[in-house]
Model the fold of this input.
Amino acid sequence: MHKGLITSMALNTAEDILYTASLDKTVKVWRISDLKCIETIKAHPEPINAIIVADDGVLYTASDDATVRVWRRNFCSHDQPHSLTVTLHAKYSPVKALTLTPDAGILYGGCTDGYIHYWLKGWFAGQLQYGGSIQGHTHAVMCLASVAKYVVSGSADSTSRVWAREQDGQHTCLAVLVGHRGPIRCVTAFIGGRLVEDNEDSCTICTGSLDGVLKVWRVTHKNVNNQCSSPPGTKYFELYKGL
Done:
């Protein structure tokens, strides 16, 4: 049991493990089969805001200490099953959100200064190296999602932004999704669906805000013309408004 609020969870079904992160600065490792806590990781000196686990079992933790830490399971050690492999620095700003590209080749971290920092996995050693930052939000980045070549960010400035990862590695802002009346707390995105064609030129984005509204957006890359605004190719559908 954590001594503080649980802020994030991540599931590793291949190894029958659930991770929980907390404001108590720890990550707990739970065995799903018997719901037993098998390890407590003292992960950061400050509260942990987000965790994510890759398909290869690597765990990433983000904290108010302005770092992202990378952990691997050590099956030969019973005393310390998870070991810290590298600490990634996010330019002195607390990290509030994480997402990985589908191939786990790029890690994104959303920070309180409105920047999204990203790290690239090397071709040979597989170590993450700082790739740069994406700037656009005026307030803290609260949530992130990645699908295909798109990265979606939600912010305390009440907007979401859609970014396209270009072939040269740079990120282009495709659209600013405006419509919520409160901070964006969660986002998800997928290719295809009933609202768009099933191709990588279009995607569907869902945003949830503290205003109690869920919005579903259709973003079409070919209609945007690289303008960071709400273009004709972007539409939204309001699904639910809380009481």
